[in-house]
Amino acid sequence: MTHLIDKILFQDLSSCDPGEVTKRTGALYDEKKGSYRVSIWGNSYDVLPRQCRIKSRGQGSGAYRDYLYLFMLHYLMGAKEIPVSGQWISEKDIPGGMGFFRGPHTLPAQLVAQAFGNDLSGFLGAGKRLGGKPLPMADAAFSFQVTPQIPVAVLLWLGDEEFESQATLLFDKTISQHLPLDIIYALAVEVCHAF
């Protein structure tokens, strides 16, 4: 299918109990097709484990689709039926995150800062276009309901003569109960590139 997606992930999803998957994630299961319909960040996708395929039912994602699809498969297999805590944490606060989110796994939040710099209206427009809910943080911030259990926040601090603009991502404290660190990274790449 795509170069980042190992077929074994589709096989692993095939071995999951569809009733249990749909209960945990809110996805729909078509027994005849053997496919899941899942809503990710407002877009609908069909996940067909037996065909090792994922089909977007709308505009979907662009060039970084592999990261989104990795997230989607792991979400279907690993998401728990637990409520969102409402407590935002950085990637460094995720268990194991201090050591993992460095070097090649540094979250690409600088892409957001580079794209908007001091363009507050551009950032606000992008956040609204992506369905974000404004947050009273930084100079501007939005939360995005990627799935019912997985919100992500994007924060922007505008630059000035002394400091460059900065951006960061925050996650609900429960994210590590749903996803491993490398898939949290994949989700972050998708969010940053969506901006």
Count of the separate structural domains: 2
Q: Which blocks of ≥5 consecutive residues have pLDDT under 50?
A: none
Q: Approximately what portion of the residues adopt beta-strand conformation?
A: 15-25%
Given helix and strand content, the structural type is alpha+beta
Element-level helix/strand string: HHEEEEHEHHHEEEEHH
Specify Rg, calculated over alpha carbons.
Answer: 17 Å
Question: What's the mean pLDDT score?
Answer: 91
Question: Termini, distance in Å?
Answer: 25 Å
**Helix fraction bin:** 25-40%
Task: Name the features.
2 domains, 8 helices, 35% helix, 195 residues, alpha+beta
Describe the structure.
It is a single chain. Helix 1 (7-14) runs parallel beside helix 3 (65-78) and helix 3 (65-78) packs across helix 8. The radius of gyration is 17 Å and the shape is elongated. It has 2 domains: 7-78, no CATH class; 88-194, no CATH class. The strands form 2 sheets. A 5-stranded antiparallel β-sheet has the order 5-9-8-7-6. By secondary structure, the protein is an alpha+beta fold. 35% of the residues lie in helices and 24% in strands. The mean pLDDT is 91.
Question: What is the topological layout?
Answer:
Layout: H1 7-14, H2 18-25, E1 28-30, E2 35-40, E3 43-48, E4 53-56, H3 65-78, E5 88-89, H4 97-100, H5 110-116, H6 120-129, E6 133-134, E7 140-147, E8 150-157, E9 166-172, H7 175-178, H8 181-194
Antiparallel strand pairs: 1-2, 2-3, 3-4, 5-9, 6-7, 7-8, 8-9
Helix pairs in contact: 1-3, 3-8
Summarize, please.
With 195 residues, the chain is of the alpha+beta class.
